[in-house]
Amino acid sequence: VKLPKNINKLKIHFGDLMEPLQGCRMIGAIRAFNGIIDGYSILHSPPGCHSGVMMLEVLQDNSDWRIAVSGMHQRDLVYGAENKCLLAIKKVYDTFKPNFIVAMDCCSSGILGEDLESVVNLAKEEIDKDIIYFSGAGYHSLAYSGYDEALKSLIQFMEQKETIPNSINLIGIKIDDFKAREDIEEIRRICSNAGVNINSILTCDTFDAIKNAPNAELNVVFGDGIKLAEVMKKKFNIPYIVVDYPYGLNGTLEFLNSLNEHVNVDFEFVEEEKKRIIKTVEKVQFYLKGFYGMSSAVVGDYKAFGFAKFLSDEIGFDIDTLGVSKFYNIDSKINEIKDIVENIVIDDRKELEDKIMENNIEILFGSSYEKKIAQNKNIPLIRFSYPVVDEISLSNTPLAGFKGAPTIIERIINEIIKA
């Protein structure tokens, strides 16, 4: 093989052979479907695919085991095993009685060309519940695409009835995100105090709530889920906005101001929230002065943008490197944040690690996957992004919203003084 003369100058980009910051299409789809809290996901695959995605969720919440596997064996990879998928659907329904079931192929069954649509149609003849087939084979796309396509597939079950005044849907919150449930409770509290009703959370809600999503006045998208919002706008005439995840005082106010452009927001409660934050944070004001200008790196998905803004604008960190996994609205978000971030790395783990190791970074914000980098660099790691598998959360301490600001500051200070 004759190599090109400029072989040393070649760089592998996203979509080629490098390791991205996110998983495959199947992982993204599972993250969407498993947010249907009375639903169940079935992977038509060998047990390996099933155990991997289940571990990422179960290590956060041991009570949430809503993933099953058809249990393909080696011989099935030659002769096929559609009957096992049908059996799995029946077994899941008989055992758990979910209101929604998704049967999904993976790489192995996808390569075989297993006809799961026919399997689902057969299951519907015996089970009077909503069952769908979703193509989840990992070689089709990365996780962000699988997530968006999975959300969009749910529109077939939606029906517009009577619009609920001053109501919104939240799109893009994932049930297996670190402290997702606590964040949802805080966002609900904020919206309730602001006089705004949350109609449905796609997908961290019941199947009935998701079917009633078209009754809202506005869709609020947190980075992922834009495809669903676009289809709902065309089909149900529901406008949508794309917002940063509401971290900190300024981030939460920005969230409320964005809502106020479409629904009526009562800001009267905000002054008390500000006073409460100030009273709490002034206890550690001398620590905060030490953070000013501290060089940091932030790694995550769409949440990383809001988090980086909070660290820079409200605490005074210098954001040296931002590592983000790709999503559909990423270019516009980069334009918003480029003035406060020196280096931006998109879906390239090797480049990200090189930047962190080479630059004078003193603290790292990310997921459990960045633990080794932090250890090698000998700097603190504060976990906030998916996945977090080496830390649990039982107390009601959200990272989002007004209550989240003191929580994040507490976590940062404790990690630094322990180092």
Write the SSE topology.
Elements (H helix, E strand, L loop, with lengths): L24 H9 L5 E6 L2 H12 L8 E3 L6 H4 L2 H15 L3 E6 L1 H6 L3 H11 L3 E6 L7 H11 L13 E5 L8 H14 L3 E6 L4 H5 L6 E4 L4 H11 L3 E3 L5 H13 L9 H12 L3 H7 L3 E6 L2 H13 L2 E7 L5 H8 L3 E6 L2 H10 L4 E4 L4 H7 L3 E3 L17 H18 L1
Parallel strand pairs: 1-2, 1-3, 3-4, 5-6, 5-7, 7-8, 9-10, 9-12, 10-11, 12-13
Helix pairs in contact: 1-7, 4-6, 7-10, 8-18, 11-14, 11-18, 12-18
Note down, in words, how this protein is organized.
Helices cover 44% and strands 16% of the residues. The strands form three sheets. A five-stranded parallel β-sheet has the order 11-10-9-12-13, with helices on both faces. By secondary structure, it is of the alpha/beta class. The longest helix has 18 residues, at 401-418. Strand 5, helix 8 (180-193) and strand 6 (197-202) form a beta-alpha-beta unit. Helix 7 packs parallel to helix 10.
- How far apart are the first and last residues' alpha carbons, in Å? 51 Å
Q: Please describe the biggest sheet, giving its number of strands, its sense, and whether it closes into a barrel.
A: 5 strands, parallel
Count of individual beta strands: 13
Compute the number of helices. 18
Q: How helical, in percent, are the residues? A: 40-55%
How much is the radius of gyration in Å?
22 Å
Mean pLDDT comes to: 89
The 3D shape can be described as globular
Give the strand order, joined by hyphens, for the main sheet: 11-10-9-12-13
Low-confidence stretches: 1-17
What share of residues are in beta strands? 15-25%
> Which structural class fits the helix and strand makeup?
alpha/beta
